[in-house]
Protein 1
Amino acid sequence: MQALSPFHWGARIAPCLVALALPLASSAAAQSIPGVWDGAYWGLSIALAGQGDDRVAVSSQPGELGALSMRGGLGAVQAGWMSHKGTFVWGFEGDLQLGHVTDDFTAAPFSASSSIDLAASLRLLAGVPAGRRGLVFVTGGLAAARVDYAVTSTDGLNIADTAFRAGYALGAGYEQALSSGWSARFEYQYANYGKTTLADGPTTTEQTPDYHVLRIGMNHRF
């Protein structure tokens, strides 16, 4: 049996956290400290990305040449706003991410590569308090990234493109309020930057960058 990667575990655990939290929502809301999740905040995060699945093919060849499983590290600055209304907490968050998420392969005579060094997202958040100072949440919204992509061959094929691509990000996580307005957060996200057809003359390929993210960070409320 193949061992599951941390990214697969994150994808499985995140929805379980939400499912376990929902039946406790009403009692948790009564126990939670008023104002813990209200107001604007900003913070910093670090993330490990991996397990992408950009399958590469060109129109001049049958079948797939291989797959780009993008991976790497990211640092992010995030800012947002939350409001605690009755049983639920809701809000929105934006972030700017810098790092290097990449992969490449060679399947002679072809080579392919894809990399992202800049990304951003604007997402909604919704959650339920967990105990007096915890929050279990889901998040989702728009995402964009600068993608540097190439498929070349020793026979002269040269499909190369660097451009911003729009897509979406979905995730879930847990945040723990600490003291003096600080909180610690762990979350899982999946980012997908859509499908784009690129060409060199009559030969085409489809760019489909995506990856899973495990992210930890700290936030501070104003």
Protein 2
Amino acid sequence: MLNLFTQAHSLPNKTAIIDPSGSFTFQQLTESSDQVASVLLQGKSDLNQSRVAFMVSPGFDYVKTQWGIWKAGGIAVPLCITYPLPSLTYVLEDTKAEILIVGPEYEEILKEYAVEKGIRMLTLQDLKQSISKNSFPKISKDRGAMILYTSGTTSLPKGVLTTHSNIESQISTLVEAWKWSSDDHTICLLPLHHVHGIINVVSSALWSGASVQFLHPFSAKEVFEVFQESKVNVFMAVPTIYFKLISEFESYSKEAQNQLRECMKQFRLMVSGSAALPVSVMEKWKEISGHYLLERYGMTEIGMAISNPYEGPRKAGYIGKPLPGVSVRLVDEQNNLIDSGQAGEIQIKGDSVFKEYWGKPEATVKSFTKDGWFKTGDIAKVEDEYYRILGRDSVDIIKSGGYKISALEIEEILRKHPAIKDCGVVGIPDEEWGELVSAALVTLEEVDIKALNHWMREQMPAYKTPRKYIILEDLPRNAMGKVVKNDLKKLFS
């Protein structure tokens, strides 16, 4: 038996899942996932790592489907429930999925395609059909368990194949580091085709015998209503959700705000991840909830690798220290270890690191060093033993005038300006500088561009060469809407 299912047998009568359709015990989850596995097997002894794609809304049905696929010996391929058909068919064709499970909301989207391609399609109602229970296969932990897809920022999305051993390592690491227990009650707001929702929230909770409450679709008002039931004590979200919750909180009366404050102070743990958390949001949330959010770092390929401590100081703008059982190093462009305090690429080694990119052996080889370290492509520094992300080498690191400049660092500084509400920083190609640091701003009032440039130079003394900061909306453009680069020097001279 996989370790993930252990608590379902040891705590059969405890509530495992709550969703809009009701409350379900671990015993019900066991029986329902066994039923799914039996239907999938259809009398076979083992799916033998056949890919089973499923498009099911977050909740009990999602979890029983995922568990059933694993019990039957299949590889689970969760589909994003908001993807258009072309994106869905890309995943189905890339994985060569043999079985497709769909919730009632998604039957019409995929039915015609499944018939055309000869894919066995099952509805949630089909999974309830009367069928004699199989004896399920014994699953070795080196077998494939799940394929999740990367974001595809630089190429088509790649399928990340993790084994049962990888998944167990990812879960057990977080259970130990974040002190999960059967006394916990968490709420899941996150998409369930990504590691954050699947591993950090749902699987870590169920592994520990904790309860998971699903709220779908997201509503800031409903989140606070659930908080006030005084059951939730562990909460994980992305920066965008915290931003929306802050906005909702600020719309409430002082009395309602104080009630929420008292409620949230009782939480055991609040976590932010999947994107860089602006320090301003971190500080505002601390003021609202009494909690200094725990930031961590992970990827589809590695699960979580680095985390601020559960007990001990958490540093805003830092992702923390390596998690137990995870080896981390920083290297330069020649793959040499760097000196302390210098920026370098994060490389990871450990049992949580994925097996391969599905069907892409060349991409897999390219992503690992000869001695087995996974190359994340993320650039970081270590300062007082805490890792600080500077950005992705391909996106967030701007190479200007011989310097490597972190777009994330500049964004944090810009947000400190009293007239700026939010911003995004990118590099624009330039013959003289290589790239010009460029910012798009959401402002609270009119901003004098030259004064802002001067203010930025004062804020960034670490960059010895004068930088040229450009506000995208103010760039001179020709009749076709293209930036007139010859006029940039005149604008910022």
